[in-house]
Amino acid sequence: MFENLLFPFFNGLIWALVISLVALGLCIIFGVMRVVNVAHGELYATGAILTFIFLQNYGLNFWLAMLAAVAIVGIICALLEKFIYRAYEGKVSATLILSIGLALVLQQINLIIFGGKVTIMPAPLPGAISLLGVGFPAYRILAAGISVAYLILMWYFLYKTSLGLSVRATMQDRDMAAGLGVNVDRVSMLTFGLGGVLAAAGGALAAPIVSVHYLMGADILTISFIVVIVGELSLKKAVMASFVFAPLENILSVFFVPIIARVISFILMCIIVAVRQTGLIAKIRRSE
Amino acid sequence: MKKTTALKIVVMVILALIIPLFKDVSSGLLSIMSTVLIYAIYGMGYDILYGYTNQTSYGHSLFLGLGAYGFLLSVRNMNADFFIALLIGVAVVTVAAIAIGLFAVRMEESYFVITTIILVWIGYYLAMNMVNITGGDDGLSMTLPPISLGFISFSLYDPLIGYYVFLSFFAVVLVVLERIVSSPLGKVFIAVRTNPNRVEFLGYNLFYCKFIAFVISAVIAGLAGSLLAVRFRYASATYFNITYSALPIIWTVLGGAGTLWGALIGAAIYLLFVYFVSAWWANYLILFGALLITVMKFSPKGILGIIKKKISWG
Amino acid sequence: MKFFIEDDECTPSVGAEKFRKLVDVYNVDFVIGPVWSATDLACIPIAKETNTVYWPFGSSTAITGESGNRYVFRMSTSVREECKAATSFAIKELGKKWVTVVADFAFGWSYEQDFKQYIEEKGGQVLAQIRVPTGTADFLPYLAGKIPPETEAIQVTMPGGMTVQCLNGLQVVAPGIPKLGSCYLLTGIDPAQLGAAGENLYIITSYPERLEGLETPYNIQFRQLIGANADGKDEAGNWLGLPYGWACWESVYAIKEAVEKSGWKTKADNPKLIKVLEGIKFDESLQHPQGSKYIRAQDHQCFTIVYIEKVVNGKTVVFAKVPLEDAVYPPIADYTTQPLS
Fold it and tell me: What global pTM score does this model have?
């Protein structure tokens, strides 16, 4: 029994890390710009697709390919912020439509440049390692390590640099930050770029595990949204929520049909959000 | 105000009398317009929620699917007649909407959006999984019951009858919603959109207002779902897919949120793309996405917003 | 003949709308395709409603089973046909103890069910039935520890979008084990890039993608006419989807033959056409390069030879041919009892 749970648990941890990256991107974009970025899944896919193209057609090694892909996505996102989103930041509904439009365009562009096929991305580190008696693909461990590195870099940037401080200030209170001299426009541009970088990095890292497909962003988008909201739009809590959700779903799949495992995980997440948001517990306490 | 009323009447006349004239010239026109009208109903209901009370639900296809299956399963399993099946479809959706609305509507904007996303995915997964009931993504078909009004009976298989049935529902929903919007309740809706805090200060129960709007929009989505099942004689778990949740948002905002008629315009443009542009370019969605972005940049109030600007200057 | 082409976007409601468009706007007499079963099922009632003889070529058994009608003819294999044929090969060549790994939707379930039934009939055993949700990209959580050590072979049923990931996952948990893939498992996938995951991979198919698998003069000429090279790609290097596409070609010629035999002039003559088609036999020819076949009268299902391919050195080669008789199953429905107006 224990061995049965070990693999899903490890796997869940790995996925939690990848999801954290993507969710973090969503979170800072929403925090700074109040944009619900439904194009985030497509950015993830673009990261994977560009990495694949650089790997395959230009012969770059995996790390360079990933770096190039992530940089390109980041720059595109920064430009998109400046020219498309800027006028509407703060207006959730208008930016939602802009994001939907962007998602459609990006998805079709991915389809055009990559086609509808599914391709394997060869793992930069082949082979498997034996962890507590369970054979675990070595690349996944490496990907986990890289994700952790990204997270640490993000943490350092946000909490130890002045630019990061500006970002957090804008997330907390945009107008106040502007009043205190923060260049909120530049912060927005940086944030959207950074969000794109994180999503694309997640896609590139996940690609050797899940293969590359132009629609690969759909799943991760929903889960990222859920994790962000359960984490109540706080960066740290979003990461924590990923670590609750991913292992939970993986372990539940051992006991239930996978689709039901996912439904149960979603329902649990929904209950958490509902209870905390409607202050149900407080109300019950008050009425006692 | 008189100008717009005249315009509305003209549109209705075109829909009711002119379009059917073309039925022999191009029977496809009736076909597309039937779907446009059903989508417009879905969109109008959504507009009440989004355009009038500023609640962005990204999960309305849950109600669309429930309405479709409520109707279809009543016909298949109980041999229900048209109106009973419709009633059942709407009843199922009402119950679901009330249950969901009670906790979802309380939440702050972003939480509300995500909760609706979670709920619609749950609905989708369950619908895909409960194949014995829903047929999964293969779906289920039905034989359409005729509409019997006492001594007369109409077959919904006749394209013209089908068109007029959908048009009638469109007209009824439109009239009902316009009355609601111009009623005191409607004024409160608009107030909720403009300044929710003040609404509370004025003594209205904010939650109650938003809740009513939510349930109304869900019920209309359910109605549209039932009509969709009638139109295609078919329902599948894909109706619960999140894409069908994004569509009413797109139609409403594209056409003009908070106008009710915007949904009709948005749905028509969307179907034009699906129907015609797709035959020309398989990646037609790029153009549609670009259109969304462009319209938004010109006017966040959508196409009707652009037209209104032109009219007030012209 | 004039052809009008529409895209169903693999979405049943869009497909149904396009079917109506073809009939309402373009006034077509016959509709062929698509290959997506869900769309086929949505369009079948519309075919009857609009008096249009319809030739879908998805493989869902229900199309010529509980969901079909007398206007529907399927010029390609059904899942049940494929399973029955494949199991007679599988039990002899691959093993008796099986595990099925299927995608968690109708297509997967029907393979899971039919494979079990037929392999057990032939003395085999299904040790475990694994279902993986559609859209899954990471298969390890569903496979690790779930495949009993005594398993001799695995039956894999995946839509094209999940195949690569599934094979990758199997490569990790059960490297080199013989795998029997559902029909067209490798659609749009280059077997060369599978690497070790493609080891010992057999696939059911109704038509070999590569010319080498069926080098008859008819097939050579057919492929020349449609511009397919020896690998099944066109000049630009795009996969032509020939394992499905042959059904299109043959449907057209079936219509032609039936029109000529019945004297069909307009849709009003459909009853005559339908009766001619019920029980019709086609010999292998340029018009029917896939092989000799017949359309069964009761359920309008075509029965034909089924191929088993194997991935060898990054290419698919024909490994075995299952004769038509091994694929025939009792009809699920009898449409000849349905009156034709």
Answer: 0.85
